[in-house]
């Protein structure tokens, strides 16, 4: 059965994304963990990997095009599978739903903007609250498999903060801000719902104890802690996965270089 892949929400503030480049084309075989495309968000350009195996049957957003989160990005399934129902019937219903929800979205946007602005005013200058991201369209909660930074470490934009286990895979979560890691809200092995407090980044020495306390009191579900042995196994799997991912990226880079050389010669 074909799997519909929507434009993912790759950051907590992302509303739309632009496909910078496709690393697969229609008809290509796709393995779980393969990089499908590079997607430009409101903060950075990130690699988007596949959680499914099969053949890339359809591309919904071409390179350079921009679309809202949850818009049809691609369809993966069995080679030769009929996907007309996904492209025709679903597209029409999606359009009607978007029209009906426009007015609701405008109302909620004004409410969230007012609440967000009041929260932002309370934050010290330069302090950013990082919440559990929605790394797949079906993700409801995430587990911190491992932290690659500790409290007190300097963080640069693009640094990998942590590896987060979703309902489909374990993914690297990079920082969109630079500063000092002031607070960690979830320890390794702990789980929490999307938008729960994950970390706080800001100028070194900033007191954020009040922010963390208020966020917790408003917020998230109780944390669930995984057994230590399970966490250790996950770390070992992650190391192997990182090695495989690096090899795939090296192959892709080599292929691109060879293509560039070929184009120059011809």
TrEMBL record:
Coiled-coil residue windows: none
GO cellular component terms, semicolon-separated: pyruvate dehydrogenase complex
UniProt-recorded Gene Ontology molecular function terms: dihydrolipoyllysine-residue acetyltransferase activity
Biased composition (Acidic residues): 92-123
Signal peptide: none
A Gene Ontology biological process term: pyruvate decarboxylation to acetyl-CoA
Cofactor(s) demanded: (R)-lipoate
Region (Disordered): 85-126, 214-237
Enzyme class: transferase
Composition skew (Basic and acidic residues), residue ranges: 215-230
SUPFAM superfamilies in the record: Single hybrid motif
EC number: 2.3.1.12
Keywords: Acyltransferase, Lipoyl, Pyruvate, Transferase
Domain Lipoyl-binding intervals: 2-77, 127-202
Function: The pyruvate dehydrogenase complex catalyzes the overall conversion of pyruvate to acetyl-CoA and CO(2). It contains multiple copies of three enzymatic components: pyruvate dehydrogenase (E1), dihydrolipoamide acetyltransferase (E2) and lipoamide dehydrogenase (E3).
Protein name: Dihydrolipoamide acetyltransferase component of pyruvate dehydrogenase complex
The species this protein was found in: Winogradskyella psychrotolerans RS-3
């Amino acid at each position: 059965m074909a799997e519909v892949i929507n434009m993912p929400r790759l950051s907590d503030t992302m509303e739309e994304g632009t496909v910078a480049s496709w690393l697969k084309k229609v008809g290509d075989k796709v393995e779980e963990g393969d990089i499908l495309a590079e997607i430009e968000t409101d903060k950075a350009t990130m690699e988007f990997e596949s959680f499914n195996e099969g053949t890339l049957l359809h591309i919904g957003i071409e390179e350079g095009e921009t679309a809202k989160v949850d818009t049809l990005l691609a369809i993966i399934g069995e080679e030769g599978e009929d996907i007309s129902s996904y492209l025709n019937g679903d597209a029409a219903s999606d359009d009607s739903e978007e029209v009906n929800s426009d007015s609701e979205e405008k109302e909620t946007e004004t409410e969230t903007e007012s609440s967000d602005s009041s929260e932002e005013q309370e934050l010290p200058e330069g302090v950013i609250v990082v919440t559990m991201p929605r790394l797949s369209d079906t993700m409801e909660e995430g587990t911190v498999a491992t932290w690659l930074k500790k409290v007190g470490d300097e963080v640069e934009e693009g640094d990998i903060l942590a590896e987060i286990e979703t309902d489909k895979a374990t993914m690297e979560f990079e920082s969109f801000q630079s500063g000092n890691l002031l607070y960690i809200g979830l320890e390794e092995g702990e789980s929490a719902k999307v938008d729960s407090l994950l970390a706080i980044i800001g100028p070194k020495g900033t007191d954020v104890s009040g922010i963390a306390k208020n966020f917790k009191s408003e917020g998230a579900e109780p944390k669930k802690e995984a057994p230590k042995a399970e966490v250790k196994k996950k770390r070992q799997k992650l190391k192997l996965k990182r090695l495989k991912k690096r090899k795939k990226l090296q192959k892709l880079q080599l292929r691109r270089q060879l293509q560039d050389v070929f184009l120059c010669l011809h």
